[in-house]
RNA sequence: UGCUCGGUAGCUCAAUGGUAGAGCAGGCGGCUGUUAACCGUCUGGUUGCAGGUUCAAGUCCUGCCCGAGCAGCCA
């Protein structure tokens, strides 16, 4: 007899199998009990009757509560009355634990209650489907980058200073010295790509901003590729290919999960190259036409991003921002030094920015000047300046916000559902 | 941080200023094809906290706490 994952039961028709899992729901017709069992891979209905089970085992099955842990042995039968088209006719039952009254009933619940029970909410079909899609997105991204000759090189989480002077960092005590949790691995990755050519970092990043929105977490995961000898245009096409590869992998491998989430996949199917490109200046014009009160030089907020994304069915690149509202390390546009060679990728359907990328300054003197203009401590950036001293080359990179990408692909209304244990403003339990 | 809305049973929600209610969950009983099963029955309350108005406050007023939505902040 085989120990089988529920998702693989289809290939064990009329065979005897062993399944271990938890009781998702139960209904009873007196002498006939229906157990809906989950094992993390899928759900299956098991049927218990007095005909196939001893009196003692039948009574045990009758006592099972939601989330009781168990193991069943029985024969897989085709039956279109069961969810998924087959069910298990139980011949024997082993119970690990009869569950106490489980807090999350199969009815509706509010956000506060669910997030307080986050450690249990992840068992729901809703959250576990999202986590599976998240896993597929990560796997697809790694497969894509690895196939393109990238090496994963991870960067430190404990850092001596800000990558930039702007964001609010989490400060910690490092043996009596101040240190900070990383808000990006980019600067270190610029060093790494001068060693290995094409690299990416995938890890957690931390922002201590008092942001309380559906698209912000205090702790989130970022995929940050960095490439030597790559300029703005090539940087954008790699982003485009990466996003298309991720979306098509999810469509191919996660159709059950997308169905569980009731995701309308028609938008996802349109995610094919090329993505529309829009300069910052053009975007400002379009926003003005739509009635936004915005002047050249202002940064875009959430409503502006949503308005721009609504003009297109695909994700859209916004390029050539004014240098004044972007980071110090971005390469100025040779035709107009007020602009920088950067691109934000705005997801479709109003999900906002999922990628921010740019070509980096490779000239020593220019970078030094920018560091001073931004009032950053030059000493702290000595190693970063060194990269422009010893065999400097044009290079580019970008950062993909994993949770925002998951939120977009899954069609979620809030980013808190995209990670097993979200870290929110003023909310760190459990 | 600002604006707006909210807080009643374990959960989701009702309740003209006039006796605190229902469904689900949980207990007990019934049912051989249920799909958030159903039927009967039982259990379940400091109405977020503190004060005030009133013969009477879940309901009106003030302050505070907590949550949510939006905005700001935000490579």
UniProtKB/TrEMBL annotation:
GO terms for biological process: asparaginyl-tRNA aminoacylation. It holds the Pfam family tRNA-synt_2. It is an enzyme of class 6 (ligase). InterPro entries: Aa-tRNA-synt_II, aa-tRNA-synth_II, aa-tRNA-synth_II/BPL/LPL, Asn-tRNA-ligase, Asp/Asn-tRNA-synth_IIb, NA-bd_OB-fold, NA-bd_OB_tRNA. Residues 131-430 form the Aminoacyl-transfer RNA synthetases class-II family profile domain. Its EC number is 6.1.1.22. GO terms for molecular function: asparagine-tRNA ligase activity; ATP binding; nucleic acid binding. It is found in: Cytoplasm. Its main location: cytoplasm. Coiled coil: none annotated. One of its GO terms (cellular component) is cytoplasm. Keywords: Aminoacyl-tRNA synthetase, ATP-binding, Cytoplasm, Ligase, Nucleotide-binding, Protein biosynthesis. PROSITE patterns: AA_TRNA_LIGASE_II (PS50862). It catalyses: tRNA(Asn) + L-asparagine + ATP = L-asparaginyl-tRNA(Asn) + AMP + diphosphate + H(+). Homodimer. Belongs to the class-II aminoacyl-tRNA synthetase family. PANTHER family: ASPARAGINE--TRNA LIGASE, MITOCHONDRIAL-RELATED (PTHR22594:SF34), ASPARTYL/LYSYL-TRNA SYNTHETASE (PTHR22594). This is Asparagine--tRNA ligase. The gene is asnS.
